[in-house]
UniProtKB/TrEMBL annotation:
5-hydroxyisourate binds at T48, D49, F150, R167, Q216, N242. It is an enzyme of class 1 (oxidoreductase). It comes from the Eukaryota. GO terms for molecular function: urate oxidase activity. It is found in: Peroxisome. This is Uricase. One of its GO terms (biological process) is urate catabolic process. InterPro entries: Uricase. It catalyses: urate + O2 + H2O = 5-hydroxyisourate + H2O2. Catalyzes the oxidation of uric acid to 5-hydroxyisourate, which is further processed to form (S)-allantoin. Urate binds at T48, D49, F150, R167, Q216, N242. NCBIfam families: urate_oxi (TIGR03383). The gene is Uox. GO terms for cellular component: peroxisome.
Length: 284
């Protein structure tokens, strides 16, 4: 049990310059005894309102140095303060506020919300067990207008999809990774590096791009690049929910439409998912 959607803004000031972190937190506990479920005995139950207040107090006292560190702080607090807590899991996601710039000059106290992917993390721990940290990005919308196709796929009497060697590749990307044994990582730096890997693997070189024969191959290329460049990452789960675009037939309007006007196919949409990890992690 626990408390969901604890939303708050943490404001930090250094002279005239302000820093913000707006987050949503979910904190769930499992107690050493299920007596509140089986017997209606609430003597060990930490009220969810108390859980919410603890999260807010930790934000006030410790700040939010990184999403991952804040999730770790929450786990540590419940494990060290309450002997009846057997397991704690914390989820934190961030509202994507970015500092506003005017003529290239960063503003001291103004920000803009830029929906270019939502950062999140999870931390979980069993009593006498290791602290496990996950991080990720979701709702990252990506598109490239060429250098993508889909050919040579299996066909039978139910197949109506034509082969395409040049199409728009567009989708909403979700990625979650595990750090394995949690150490003193620079979580902010790692997250930014992984985001850069995602964009690079999806788009390819800026002058000519990289051909994608399928959504599946693109997802795998993203994961492989992350594993090759970020040694702290052990396992990556990735999901790409596809958005398809159909070319509008304008013959009745007396026009030729050479893939210049397209409409999105809202539903149904395709999806591909892959979990990839280092061999030593799975052997362990």
């Amino acid at each position: 049990y626990g408390k969901n959607t604890i939303k708050f803004l943490r404001l930090h000031k250094e002279g005239k310059k302000h820093f913000v972190k707006e987050v949503e937190v979910c904190a769930h506990l499992r107690l050493t005894s299920p007596q509140e479920y089986l017997e209606g005995d609430n003597s060990l139950v930490i009220p969810t309102d108390t859980i919410k207040n603890i999260v807010l107090v930790l934000a006030k006292k410790n700040g939010i140095p990184s999403l991952e560190q804040f999730a770790i702080d929450i786990c540590n607090h419940f494990m060290t303060t309450f002997c009846q807590v057997a397991y704690v899991k914390t989820y934190v996601q961030e509202v994507p506020w970015q500092r506003l710039h005017e003529d290239g000059v960063p503003h001291v106290h103004s920000f803009i919300c830029v929906p270019d992917g939502i950062r999140f993390c999870e931390a979980e721990q069993c009593r006498n067990g290791p602290l496990i940290v996950f991080a990720g990005i979701k709702d990252l919308k990506l598109m490239k207008t060429t250098q993508s196709g889909f050919e040579g796929f299996y066909k039978n009497e139910h197949t109506t999809l034509p082969e395409r060697h040049d199409r728009i590749l567009c989708g909403e990307f979700f990625c979650k990774w595990s750090y394995g044994e949690c150490k003193d990582f620079d979580f902010d730096c790692i997250w930014k590096k992984i985001r850069e890997c995602i964009l690079e693997a999806f788009a390819g070189p800026p002058d000519h791009g990289e051909y994608s024969p399928s959504y599946q191959k693109t997802v795998n290329c993203i994961q492989m690049l992350i594993l090759s460049r970020v040694p702290q990452v052990q396992v990556i789960e990735a999901v790409l929910n596809n958005t398809f675009y159909n070319v509008v037939d304008m013959k009745n309007l007396g026009l030729t439409n050479d893939k210049e006007v397209l409409v999105p196919v809202e539903t149904p949409y395709g999806s591909c998912a892959c979990t990839l990890g280092r061999k030593k992690f799975f052997e362990a």
